[in-house]
Amino acid sequence: MNGPKSGDNGTMASRKPFLLLGVLLAGCSTSSGQTGQPCSQTGAGACEGPDGGPISHLLVCRASDAGTGNVWEVYSDCRGTRGCEVLADSSLSCDTTGNTEGDRCAPESEGKARCDPSKATNILRCESGVLTKVFDCPAGCSRVDGGVSCL
Question: What fold is seen in the domain 21-150?
Fold first, then answer.
């Protein structure tokens, strides 16, 4: 399945405003959804946020494992300052710049590494849809030539 694209470090490129889920997923998006709740069109996207807090999840409508129709599932956490938002053209963007160890990552980020924004000594990699610590860099982590490296 296609979905939003992200940079090598797991962040959405600010120069190219977040690639758009609505365009990549059959042109369908909605402003909000709730994990586990029914949805109508497979591949559609939505934003979800915690009660009383900023929107922090990008959702995708997928067929239920139980075979009971379509349900909203988390596609990626969006913990950057912009969170998950609906753009003027009704497509969706997900700011992953604040995502850290244990956060969910999009399938397109699988195997990609990034520095941990909350603990600069960790290198994280998207493994099985979750950001996982793979290296501890005592002197810190840095982006180098499109990748990440210990200092």
Answer: 2.30.130
